[in-house]
Amino acid sequence: MRETFSGSIITLAIAGTAVSIVTSVYLTGASAQAPTLKTPWGEPDLQGIWTDETDTPLERSPKFAAQEFFTEVQRAELDRQRGARLGRERRAERGTTADVAGAYNDVFTPKKRTGLRTSRIVDPPNGRLPALTPEAQKIAAAERQFRLALLQATETCKNKEAPCAGGKYDPTPSPRFADRPPRYNIATINRYDGPEDASLPVRCLMGGVPEVGRLGAIADRISYRRIVQSPGGISMFYDVGQGQGWQRNIVMDGSPHLPASIRQWYGDSRGRWEGNTLVIDVTNFSAKTDFQGSRENLHVVERWTRTGPTTLEYAVTVEDPTVWVRPWTAKQDFTLQSNEENRIYSEPR
User: Fold this and answer.
1) How many domains does one find in the chain?
2) pLDDT band with cut points at 50, 70 and 90 for residue 135
3) What percent of the chain has pLDDT over 90?
4) I need a labelling partner for 272 at 20 to 30 A (CA). Which of 171, 205, 236, 304 fits?
5) Half-sphere exposure in the Cβ direction for 165 (13 Å, CA)
6) 229: buried, middle or exposed (CB in 10 Å: 19+, 13-18, 0-12)?
7) Is the pTM higher than 0.70?
């Protein structure tokens, strides 16, 4: 269980909506197949607190090949298997570093039902990330070798534990211990000369655009977003992980992106309406952020569509020609939550 959306944050969100958002009405177009929720000023209404109530992996397991959706029998069996796993309840040998470094038990890692899709990625059709470019492979290998070099004299390598896979144990201090990382560090390394030797989550710099990652991360599995609309503007507040919330403002006035020299942690979001779909184009990411290996060249196009009174479809296309050989697209389905302030969210659902 966890407490989310502090009173001050909710007060700000409510204050922003109270100016112009009092009620929403249903309007049915001549060609619409279902009522479309609209704001008083006529835009599609996406407002509310939304979350994904199921677990879906980013990539599809090869064993499901071209199968885009699970059968109910498969979902039930996956739920049974996942429910039986010890997860964070598993203890390492008492007194070892692996044991005391566990930090959180499974109370902090909810186990939601298996989703309908076999993967969030819907394009490529195999549900897998595209191949990395030679340049991206080279950078990834350099970062991996740097982390392994710092680990070589530790018990992790001596015991041949997973983080040292591909490395070897050497009791002598690493000759690279004082070296700078190949590029700005965002991961855990075996050194702590300053805060930037810590991972981004340790520095409470979690979240980002797009918010679709590999299943298992706390920030991915405990994640809510509150959408607030007003004439000419949209704001989204994300409450993720252990309360590392962050906010993004969507510019809706038709102005171009910021100059390329201006970089932002969550990028520069420029939105427009295409029918009932909010389309957000995001560029200008900082080189200190990272999404699946992509940094300052990341380009994201999001599509938010309300598909019913309590459902919202999110589709995102991601591209970075320096990282992947082709763009890729993922989808996620969100469910509307209660707007009650300072409430407790119970897990598992």
Assistant:
1) 1
2) very high
3) 63
4) 205
5) 2
6) buried
7) yes
pLDDT of residue 102: 66
For the stretch 223-260, pLDDT in tens is 889 999 999 899 999 888 766 788 999 999 999 999 99
In angstroms, the CA 195 to CA 187 distance is 11
Residue 277 lies in a domain: yes
What is the rounded distance in angstroms from the CA atom of residue 252 to the CA atom of residue 234?
7
Tell me whether residue 232 is exposed, middle or buried, using C-beta atoms within 10 angstroms of its C-beta: 0 to 12, 13 to 18, 19 or more: exposed
Please tell me the total number of residues recorded for the chain in this structure.
Answer: 349
The kind and range of the H/E element at 311 are: strand 311-319
In-domain check, residue 160: no
Domain enclosing residue 287, as ranges: 2-57+209-345
Assigned token pair, 276: 């009932």
Residue 283 belongs to a domain: yes
Q: Find where tokens 């902090």 sit.
A: 108
On whether residue 186 sits in a domain, the answer given is no
Relative to beta strand 25-27, strand 299-308 is unpaired
Radius of gyration of the chain (CA): 22
Reading the block at residue 322, the tokens are 């320096």
CA distance 294 to 338: 35
Q: Please, which residues have CB within 8 angstroms of residue 296's CB and are 6 or more apart in sequence?
A: 263, 285, 286, 287
Of the two residues 230 and 202, the one the predictor is more confident about is: 230
**Nearest Cα residue to 242 out of 224, 226, 222, 225:** 222
